[in-house]
Amino acid sequence: MGHYRFTAFPRFGWLVVFTALLLVAFYAAGLPESAPRFSEALVRSFAATLVAAGAVSVMALVVGEALLPRFVVFLAVALLTPAVAVVARTMSGGSARRDAAERVLAVVGVAEALALASDLKGVRERPAVLAATALGADVRSSAQRPRPLAELVDAHQATLVVLDREAIADEDIVVQAAELHRRGCKVRTLALFYDQWLGKLPLSELERSALLFDIHEIHNAAYARSKRAIDVLLALLALPLLALAVLAVLVADLAGNRGPLLYRQERVGKDGRIFTILKFRTMPPSGGEPTWTGVDDRRVGRVGRVMRKSHVDELPQVVNVLRRELSIVGPRPEQPRYVAELARKIDYYDLRHLVQPGITGWAQVNFDYGASGFDALEKLQYEFYYLRHQSLMLDARIVGRTIRSIVGRTGR
Fold first, then answer.
1. Interval 133-167: pLDDT, tens
2. Which residues pair with 262 in a beta bridge?
3. Euclidean distance between CA atoms 332 and 371, whole angstroms
4. Which of 80, 81, 315, 323 has the smallest count of CB within 10 Å of its CB?
């Protein structure tokens, strides 16, 4: 071992890759934030380290040499399995997180209050419950009620006050909010609350925020190059899986999904360029006009449902990635006619086409299904969040959540 230089490139580079695989695997397994029992945390931790070790082993077979010493891989499995389980249990998962939920008092309009109540029932980045809502006129001070905002906070035991644009523009309300802030109550604008707690932008802020942030894919050359390198690496690693999937799908199609192997459809890519997306066909061939595909679409047969649940039907898109038509992570590309329709209805909708579309994305892992124009509008709020926060770390989180959804069999 005396001549072995572990920190020399490319050995150290593969250690970084292995570490990244471990982080993604842990996140996909729901660790460390959710593990109600130590035994469950131990099983998840062991499975995650095993998957990462297996991935490195497969890479070693493809490359044809030992990328990392065996003791490093085995030691990682032996040490990280109990360590991550202990950390996960220490962090106290589900029930403690719910108990720590912020109680929100929102000073917003009627429409915004209804939207906020609905959004808080869905996926959240941080725990929060809507304790009460109030109109701006209800919290303006008077001789009879000098501190109405504080009264509402106390009455509903609110820990976080959310103010919409009109409330922020009202000096009286802002003065009251500042007093609450000094005594320990959190204060956020509606847009910032959506960003930090819900991982999206509110509809009312889409147009206003469209040009007020950098998009790393076009404003950060280092990120763009790194993202493309990772795309190519992952696509090349997925090619053997695609080859095996082709054989399996061919056999399955003979049993109950006869027709062409691949489904091809025009989609709108970066800078509005039209390209042909590739997928394994999950429905009978149809010569009609393409329509939105529903969650439980009756046109999808048994074989198609299995492919959709496991996301195997998406594997041919690695070819689109290698062609530079798709990225692994990005806004999901839509059909040209839907893009034209939505662009007419929504200002700045085309902003999503400034970046490479993706096989998976922030909207896909946070919202169930885009099966209508309304759902497309809902997803756009998540896509603007992705554009604002685009980074390799966020991309890794999205990949992790995608794997988590596949493991949990929550495919569309």
1. 999 999 999 989 999 999 999 999 999 999 999 99
2. 280
3. 13
4. 323
Name the 3-class secondary structure at 161.
Answer: strand
| Whether residue 129 is found in the same domain as residue 154 | yes
Q: 107, 167 in Cβ contact below 8 A?
A: yes
CB 147 within 8 A of CB 153: no
Q: Are 105 and 78 part of one and the same domain?
A: no
Residue 42 is assigned to a structural domain of this protein: yes
CATH number assigned to the domain comprising residue 105: 3.40.50
Q: Is 211 part of any domain?
A: no
Let me know whether 236 and 278 are in one domain. yes
List the domain range (segments joined by +) for residue 341. 216-407
**One-letter amino acid of 252:** A
Question: Which tokens sit at 277?
Answer: 């997306």
Considering its fold, how many domains does the chain have in total? 3
Task: Write the DSSP string, 222-279.
Answer: HHHHHHHHHHHHHHHHHHHHHHHHHHHHHHHHHHH--S-SEEEEEEE-GGG-EEEEEE
Strands 274-280 and 262-268, sheet pairing: antiparallel
Residues 165 and 286 in one domain: no
Last residue of one domain, picked from the residues 51, 73, 92: 92
- Residues in the chain where the model's pLDDT stays below 70: 1-11, 32-36, 62-67, 91-99, 207-211, 286-299, 369-374, 408-412
- Find where tokens 């032996």 sit: 78
Helices (DSSP H) in 157-220: which residue ranges?
A: 165-168, 171-182, 190-193, 206-209, 216-219
Is the peptide bond prior to 32 cis by the omega test (within 30 degrees of 0)? yes
Which residues, at least 6 apart from 313, have a Cβ–Cβ distance to it below 8 Å? Answer: 263, 279, 280, 281, 282, 304, 307
Q: Per the domain annotation, does 208 fall within a domain? A: no
Whether omega before 10 lies within 30 degrees of 0, making that bond cis, reads yes
Contact in structure between 111 and 85 (CB atoms under 8 Å): no
Same domain, 260 and 389: yes
